[in-house]
Amino acid sequence: MIVSTTEVMRDSANMEESLVEWRRRLHMYPELSGNEVQTSEYIVSELRKMGVDASVVNERHAVVGIIKGRGTENIGVRCLRADMDALPIREANDVPYKSRSDGVMHACGHDAHVAIQLGAAALLNKYKDRFAGEIRLLFEPAEETVGGALELVNAGYMKGANAVFGLHMQPDLSAGQVEARVGAMSGYSDNLKFNVRGKSAHGAYPERGTDAIVAASNLVLALQTIVSRNASPFESAALSIGIMEGGTAGNIICGNVYMKGTLRTLSAETRELALRRINEIARGVGAAYGCECEAEVTAGYEAVICDERFVSALRGISSQMNAEYFTKEYPSLGVDSFGCLTAAAPGLYYNLGCGKTAGALPLHTDAFDIDEKCLAIGACLQTLLCFTNPL
Fold first, then answer.
1. Per-residue DSSP letters for 95-134?
2. pLDDT on residue 218
3. Which end of the chain has fewer surrounding CB within 10 Å, N or C?
4. CATH topology for 5-186+302-386?
5. What pLDDT score does 10 carry?
6. DSSP structural state of residue 335
7. CATH code of domain 188-299
8. pLDDT for position 391
9. Of the candidates 194, 273, 306, 195, which has an alpha carbon nearest to the alpha carbon of residue 240?
10. In angstroms, rounded to a whole number, what is the distance separating the alpha carbons of residues 42 and 25?
11. What residues does each domain of the chain span?
């Protein structure tokens, strides 16, 4: 091993004050997806203070830092990802580091993700004389909305990478606990839009029109059979319609209905089946009710897939750190743009315990907060993972 677990634990513990300072500074000045201007400038400034080559690399304010090893044991190219955007939530916590941006809050822990990655950067830069290869620090914008990971992939920042590591705050676990699983941690997402076009008429004379609302209502019901009758009962899938708009008055047959929804799947095979059936059902229901029905699918995030080698490494490192490792029993149909990165290189995505107390408030709530002890643990884990399975 390039460094010992004991050494990295000691060094990460010694930088706890800096980790807390970074996290609280980021928490006080959150920025929404696509607007991470000050956040990216702050990250670049802190990395350069450490002597790490870093810059803002695109219009979305993504940041990439590079650490080149000068030692002998080759680790290849290892990538670390931290997302950095906040949410449109007004913070309810009464703490010294409360958000200074009204209506904007780091309620998903991305401030902690960035702080942990800055900590890992400091450690990896300190150890750069001991390894050969390259560490790429990817700070991703807009994860909560359109995602910035794919742009980083398309720009070549995953080129040649033999591993990518990411983590997420998990308030259901306490500091000192971690959770992962081999295979899918979370699934694919696809965005669905439907336009159902009929013919408007007076509500007293329905035979003179073609009711788009009746067709759309039956389309919603028919789409549910994809999950209940087309996908295997052993495969997870969810199809939800969240928006249904149409009509102008209660006594007018509706001529056009617009619907919007989401498809979530875990396997590529089930995803392909569902997408095919969505188009078939849309056309069939439209024809059955005398309407035209167009389905439009926009691909969302890829599934997050954890490589067995790195899950095993996380389990071993956790044991050495006296951290409690849990195997996540079921994958989630929630999504994360980290899947774009695990589609480009073998990787590991794990949940890091941050709950202050039992029953801690969940993510995306106005009083979410973390036990800052998790910061040093995360920085230690991310650093040690970079040295696992060298070439």
1. STT--SSTT-B--SSHHHHHHHHHHHHHHHHHTGGGEEEE
2. 98
3. C
4. Aminopeptidase (3.40.630)
5. 98
6. -
7. 3.30.70.360
8. 63
9. 194
10. 9
11. 5-186+302-386, 188-299
